[in-house]
Specification:
There is one protein chain. It is built from five helices and 30 strands. It is mainly β.
Length: 361
């Protein structure tokens, strides 16, 4: 999971519903934009818990009661004495941004996802120690091979080689996710279609795609007619970028980020924050006029296509009346929440593809 550091406004030049076809056995959960992460909720041990939805890991955990006393918006996450079955293992997980959790591994007596019950088979961590987390519960929908929790036996301090079933293995053949933030839905299904289909990089444990160019559209009325590359030269190299609902920012090469920021007169680089900040938070109208960030990808048939992130979706209010550009320079490509604000993303593991249906074409 990437760094959880860094409004949804419903405006676009061409907007339409997701219109995606889901399999008959689709499970639908709520999906909400919490500014710094996406959240969903389901019943765990008879408690309706709100989770950070994380496509960057396959771990699921909740804070214990003691941690909840000190955590923000954690009161609904108390599980009380109904924890389910104790597996006899403790665990430790460390994430990219310096976050970590430690706890005990349980099997939930009740786990209900829509109309699907995973009673007495769904594994989750009960966290009793943490560093730097801004959420009190995490639901990982990453591939099983991403499992990052190190298990320890109670009777010794050495790591165990044990693993346990992840959500993907438990859900019964449903290997497709539809992250439909424009319609506030997270769907778990057997099949989904989108307007654009891009191959996933199967050699990665992450949900990862190749991007061949990054451009900008400043004249939104001209749309594609105004598309210009954000690279200074034609010597562009394909780079890999992961799809991460647990990241609040889009991370791209520094050259790209700097050149995009130059087209917004009201932003400046803040060395302390290590991000581009707005001199003042833009108005709703000003947000809708911000340039599109355009990712060039290759679809399954080999044609060049565009994934467009609206400029308004790159604005995040980090505190009252203080706004930042959710676009960070990095050698490690990440497509975080701004991507999901700008369209509907499908992850189809059966066909090893990403599908995309953007709010603007």
């Amino acid at each position: 999971m990437s760094v959880l550091s860094c409004l949804y406004v419903c405006f676009c030049l061409l907007q339409f519903g997701s219109g995606a076809y889901l399999g008959d056995t689709a499970i639908t959960l709520p999906l909400n934009d919490e500014d710094f992460y996406l959240s969903t909720s389901f019943l765990l041990n008879n408690k309706n818990i709100s989770f950070l939805l994380d496509s960057g890991s396959s771990d699921t955990w909740v804070f214990d009661s003691d941690l909840c006393e000190d955590a923000y918006d954690c009161s609904n996450n108390y599980l009380g004495s109904n924890l389910g079955k104790d597996t006899g293992y403790s665990f430790q997980t460390e994430y990219f941004g310096g976050q970590s959790v430690v706890g005990e591994l349980y099997i939930a007596s009740e786990a209900k996802f829509g109309n699907k019950d995973l009673n007495n088979q769904f594994y989750y961590g009960y966290v009793n120690d943490t560093t730097n987390f801004i959420t009190s519960a995490l639901f990982g929908i990453g591939q099983s091979k991403m499992q990052s929790q190190k298990l320890y036996s109670y009777d010794n301090s050495y790591p165990s080689n044990k693993s346990y079933p992840t959500f993907l293995q438990d859900i019964g053949g449903r290997n497709t996710f539809l992250i439909d933030l424009p319609n506030n839905q997270f769907d778990i299904s057997t099949h989904v279609n989108g307007d654009l289909t891009v191959n996933l990089n199967t050699d990665s444990h992450y949900y990862q795609i190749n991007v061949t160019d990054v451009g900008i559209i400043t004249n939104l009325k001209k749309n594609n007619g105004d598309l210009k590359s954000l690279y200074d030269s034609n010597d562009k190299a394909t780079f890999k970028t992961i799809l991460d609902t647990g990241s609040s920012v889009v991370q791209l090469p520094a050259e790209v980020v700097n050149n995009y920021a130059e087209h917004i007169s009201s932003v400046y680089w803040d060395e302390t924050q290590q991000s581009f900040m707005f001199e003042s938070c833009p108005t709703t109208q000003a947000k809708t006029n911000l340039p599109y960030l355009v990712l060039t990808v290759t679809n399954r048939s080999g044609s060049q296509k565009y994934v467009k992130i609206r400029g308004q979706d790159l604005v995040v209010e980090v505190e009252d009346n203080v706004c930042a550009l959710a676009l960070s320079p990095s050698n490690f490509g990440v497509l975080g929440i701004p991507l999901f604000r700008s369209g509907t993303v499908g992850i189809d593991l059966d066909h090893e593809v990403m599908t995309w249906k953007g709010l603007v074409r």
